[in-house]
Amino acid sequence: MYTDENGHTIQTNQFSVTEHFKGAERGLLDNLAGVFFIYDLSPIKVTFAEGHVSFLHFLTNVCAIVGGVFAVSGIIDSCIYHGQKAMKKKMEIGKLN
């Protein structure tokens, strides 16, 4: 069931299919040729409700994303800087060659 912001509901159905194949070998009578359908119905109700997100909540999410990008870029920059510094030190003492 889907409910939008105005309270209108839409009844929907969803289905899933699983396919299994087993080839038959010649000379064996255990494997009968045919098409078999087995249904396993499991009723479940899922409700999707559309809602409004406040501007403050949106701003908080944007700040969290920007902060995460800033932190990861700082870690990458630090790794590059310290790696370059270590390589330069090894080049100066002649251990890199």
From TrEMBL:
Entry keyword set: Membrane, Transmembrane, Transmembrane helix
Cellular component terms per the entry's GO annotation: COPII-coated ER to Golgi transport vesicle; endoplasmic reticulum
KW Transmembrane (keyword) present: yes
Superkingdom of origin: Eukaryota
TM stretches of this protein: 58-81
Cross-referenced Pfam families: COPIIcoated_ERV
Domain annotation Endoplasmic reticulum vesicle transporter C-terminal: ranges: 2-77
Keyword check for Chaperone: no
InterPro entries tied to this protein: Erv, Erv_C
Protein name per the record: Endoplasmic reticulum-Golgi intermediate compartment protein 3-like
Organism: Gossypium australe
